[in-house]
Amino acid sequence: MPELPEVETTVKDLNKKVLGRTFIDIWSDFKKQVKKPKNFEQFKKEIKGRKIEKVRRKGKNILFDLSDSKTLLIHQKLTGHLLVGYWILDNGYWRPKVKGPLEEKINTFIHLLFTFDNGQMLALSDLRKFAKIELWDRKNLKKELSSLGPEPLVKDFTFQKFKDVLTGKKGKIKQILMNQEVIAGIGNIYSDEILFEARIHPLKEVPNLNKDEFKEIFRAIKKILKKAVKLRGESISDFRDIGGRRGFFDEYRKVYRKEGQKCSRCGAIIKKIKIAGRSAHFCSKCQKL
DNA sequence: TGCAGTGTTGCTTC
DNA sequence: CGAAGCAACACTGC
Question: Does the annotation mark A105 as catalytic?
């Protein structure tokens, strides 16, 4: 499940690989994944001939700025992967032309594939088919994404700003951290890891946090997300970079899906509970309620 | 074998 | 208005 660090890794790699490329063709076997324009032929017509000027990230959204002020938005949701390479259509499945990590079974789930002017391809692999693809006029996109909260890794996301966005919020800290309208980009894995780093219990009510606890959470957000970006994301779920390679955050992961194991800090057993229908992992001894 | 668990977003319901 | 539940989908693990 791609969260901020995984999307950031993807976007950085895409900027190295596909900048200046022009779309010449699009293939799909699941056309309703393209939500805007709804008509796939229309989408195809509008994409063809357009050039990629820049790739950006907003929260968990990937934005391809194209020529003529269009922007292609891709949200990977749970199991979407963007892959760059060369494939051949074989019996309804895309097979990679060259040996390597792209040969893993994520290939089976390619439902959308763009071909560029140099023969290179951009594939969207998506097991659960939840990913969303939309083509926007750039001027309308800002409004569309305006409900997203601030980007946690930018310099001007200061402690003051963090306090401001949390002030007045009711609810459990875990839920608030995952709310994209409060802060953009944090999902289930990193909210667990951030709260472990900050030694705060996921069920802690936001209005009950004192200043020191706010400070710890703020510090932990920056630390964990920066670390995860540096390590090119996780791969306990099925994240892969655009070359099909894993991230390295798993070696650093302390609580997510570690229930029953010993806490690396105090040796107590890591617990798993449900919060608003989501799994939450934490150490009940060193994370304070 | 069968069914709960998996996570993100948005829509529906209360 | 907000919170909770569920659907979108398909595969894994118990």
Answer: no
